[in-house]
C-alpha cells in the first residue's frame, strides 16, 4: 500500500539532512522525485545518486522564502514532470539564541523559511494537485512545535505555527482532495548535530528521551511513507510525533 510507482513527489530542503533522505526513500518506493533547495550542486549529486540506484529525480533550485522563486520552481517542476501527487514541505532552519537577544532579522530568518516558506510551497502544491483531483502534503514540523526548549523561541513558534497551518489547510483543502498532515520529529541524529550529542549536554538530553536514544533518519521512513501514500487516505490534519516518547517525558 506504500508503493509510490507512478506518483510524483516534490521535496523541499532536499540538498541535505532529512530532505535528502526523504527524497531517496520516496524514489526507492518508485516515485519520480523533484528535489528542491537553493544549493544546485548538492541537488545534482543527489539526482545522480538516485539515478544510480535506478530511480528518477530532477533537481530544481528554489528559495522557499521568495514567492517568485517558488512560483518559478513549481512551473519548472510541472514542465518536467507534468503534475504533482506529493509535496514534502521539509526546508527549514534552526538557530539557537536567547530570546532576549533575538533581533528582528533573527526572528525573520527563522519564521520566513519555516512558516511563510512552508505556506507558499503548500499553496503552490495544492494548486497543482487541484488540477489532477488531489494529492498529499506532508509538513515537517518538530516536537518543538508542541513543547519548548531554551534558546529556541523563534523555532518553536515557527513549528507551532506550521502545526496550526497544517490543520487549517487540511480543513480548507479536503474538498479539493488535498490531504495535509504533519510529521513532528524529535531529535534526529544528522551530520549537523552529531558533535553536540557526543558532549555531556547532549548525553543529558538523550537521557530524557523515554526510549533512551536519538532518532535515526530511518525511524521516519514508515511515518513518511504512511503520510505520502494511500495508506493514509482517511487522514488529514493529523500530526504524527516520531520522537521515542520525548513529548510524553515526565514533567
Ligand atoms: N534534524 C532534526 O533533529 C530535526 C528534528 C525536528 C524537525 N526537523 C526539521 O526537519 C527539516 C530538515 O532539517 P535537517 O535537520 O535536515 O536540516 P538541514 O540538514 O540543515 O537541512 C535543511 C534544508 O533546508 C533547506 N533550506 C533552508 N533554507 C531554505 C530556503 N530559504 N529555501 C529553500 N531551501 C532551504 C536547505 O537547503 P539549501 O541550504 O541548499 O537551500 C537544506 O536542504 C527542518 O524543517 C527541521 O526543522 C529536524
Describe the protein's architecture and organization.
The mean pLDDT is 97. Strand 2, helix 2 and strand 3 (56-61) form a beta-alpha-beta unit. This protein has 251 residues and is of the alpha/beta class. The chain has a seven-stranded parallel β-sheet with strand order 3-2-1-4-5-6-7, with helices on both faces. The protein has a single domain (8-189, 221-237), classed as Rossmann fold, CATH 3.40.50. It has helices spanning 17-28, 40-52, 67-81, 104-131, 153-173, 194-197, 200-207, 221-228; strands at residues 8-12, 32-37, 56-61, 86-89, 135-140, 178-185, 239-242. NADP nicotinamide-adenine-dinucleotide phosphate is lined by residues 12-13, 15-19, 37-39, 42, 62-65, 90-94, 113, 117, 140, 142, 185, 187-188, 190, 192.
Topology:
Layout lengths: L7 E5 L4 H12 L3 E6 L2 H13 L3 E6 L5 H15 L4 E4 L14 H28 L3 E6 L12 H21 L4 E8 L8 H4 L2 H8 L13 H8 L10 E4 L9
Parallel strand pairs: 1-2, 1-4, 2-3, 4-5, 5-6, 6-7
CA gyration radius, whole angstroms = 17 Å
DSSP strand content: 15-25%
Largest sheet geometry:
7 strands, parallel
Total number of helical segments?
A: 8
Give the end-to-end Cα distance, rounded to a whole number of Å: 39 Å
Count of DSSP strands = 7
Features:
16% strand; binds NADP nicotinamide-adenine-dinucleotide phosphate; globular; 7 strands; Rossmann fold; 7-stranded parallel β-sheet; 251 residues; alpha/beta
Brief write-up:
This protein has 251 residues and is of the alpha/beta class.
Amino acid at each position: 500500500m506504500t508503493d509510490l510507482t507512478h506518483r510524483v513527489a516534490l521535496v523541499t530542503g532536499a540538498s541535505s539532512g532529512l530532505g535528502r533522505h526523504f527524497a531517496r526513500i520516496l524514489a526507492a518506493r518508485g516515485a519520480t522525485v523533484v528535489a528542491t533547495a537553493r544549493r544546485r550542486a548538492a541537488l545534482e549529486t543527489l539526482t545522480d545518486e538516485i539515478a544510480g540506484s535506478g530511480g528518477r529525480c530532477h533537481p530544481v533550485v528554489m528559495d522557499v522564502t521568495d514567492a517568485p522563486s517558488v512560483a518559478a520552481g513549481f512551473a519548472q517542476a510541472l514542465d518536467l514532470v507534468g503534475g504533482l501527487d506529493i509535496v514534502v514541505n521539509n526546508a527549514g532552519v534552526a538557530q539557537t539564541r536567547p530570546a532576549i537577544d533575538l533581533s528582528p532579522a533573527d526572528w525573520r530568518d527563522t519564521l520566513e523559511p519555516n512558516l511563510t516558506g512552508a505556506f507558499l510551497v503548500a499553496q503552490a502544491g495544492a494548486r497543482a494537485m487541484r488540477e489532477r483531483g488531489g494529492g498529499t502534503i506532508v509538513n515537517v514540523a518538530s516536537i518543538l512545535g508542541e513543547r519548548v526548549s531554551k534558546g529556541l523561541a523563534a523555532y518553536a513558534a515557527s513549528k507551532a505555527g506550521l502545526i496550526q497551518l497544517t490543520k487549517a489547510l487540511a480543513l480548507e483543502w479536503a474538498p479539493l482532495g488535498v490531504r495535509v498532515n504533519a510529521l513532528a520529529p524529535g531529535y534526529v541524529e544528522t551530520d549537523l548535530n552529531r558533535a553536540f550529542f557526543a558532549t555531556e549536554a547532549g548525553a543529558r538530553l538523550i537521557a530524557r528521551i523515554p526510549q533512551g536514544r536519538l532518532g535515526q533518519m530511518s525511524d521516519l521512513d514508515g511515518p513518511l511513507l504512511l503520510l505520502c501514500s494511500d495508506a493514509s487516505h482517511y487522514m488529514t490534519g493529523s500530526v504524527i510525533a516520531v520522537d521515542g516518547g520525548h513529548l510524553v517525558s515526565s514533567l
